[in-house]
Design goal:
The strands form three sheets. Strands 9-8-5-2-1-13-14-15 form an eight-stranded antiparallel sheet, with helices on one face. The chain has a five-stranded antiparallel sheet with strand order 3-4-10-11-12. It has two helices and 15 strands. By secondary structure, it is mainly beta. The protein is globular and about 40 Å long.
Length: about 190
């Protein structure tokens, strides 16, 4: 019923799962009309409206896939009833995020799109460093084992439509489902490893 995400960096986020569209990305389309990206290995959900609350701290080394960039300084996102209400931080990363959010001139761009965690042991956190920006879409960064993926923008299951979108893989978090851990400090629990 509830996903909770915490970290030593200051993350404390609650995601209500009742009414969420829950699924994942296996990495291969399995029936006509389905969509998949390679590599697969993501457990994810599109939360129902008004169910995401708390603070998400993006720390140094976490990834802003939209900008194809590793963060150099922490960014603190304050989230209330799905929406990013504040982007706090003094570095370039926070400034870039604020500018991109604002550029859409659309309050729905600040809403939560989807959340989840990576399950793919073959996917690499550092893979973004190996390619030119034009050669990569960051799919591997979304799937690496133990990351928490937080995304903003469109969520059709919450009747939220917008063109603005961030995909933000976050390392070193603890993720629990109804109090049971699935990720501990950025590592999958042994039963999932």
């Amino acid at each position: 019923r509830v996903m909770r995400v915490t970290s030593a960096a200051g993350t404390d986020l609650s995601v209500g799962l009742e009414g969420a569209r829950i699924g994942g990305n296996l990495g291969a389309a399995i029936e006509p009309g389905s969509l998949a990206t390679w590599p697969g290995g993501i457990c994810s959900c599109f939360p129902a409206r008004g169910t995401v609350n708390g603070v998400l701290v993006l720390d140094e080394g976490d990834i802003n896939i939209t900008f194809k960039r590793y963060l150099e300084k922490p960014v603190r996102l304050v989230i209330e009833a799905d929406y990013v209400k504040a982007v706090e931080g003094s570095g370039l990363d926070a400034e870039l995020m604020r500018a991109y959010f604002d550029a859409w001139a659309d309050p729905e761009a600040y809403g939560t799109s989807h959340v989840g965690w990576g399950m793919n042991h073959g996917a690499r956190w550092e893979s973004l460093m190996l390619y030119d920006k034009a050669q990569v879409n960051g799919i591997e960064c979304r799937a690496f084992a133990g990351n928490f993926l937080f995304s903003t923008g469109a969520n059709p299951f919450a009747n939220r439509h917008t063109l603005g979108h961030f995909d933000l893989p976050v390392r070193n978090t603890t993720i629990t489902l109804d109090g049971e851990p699935v990720v501990m400090e950025g590592r999958l629990v042994p039963t999932l490893a």
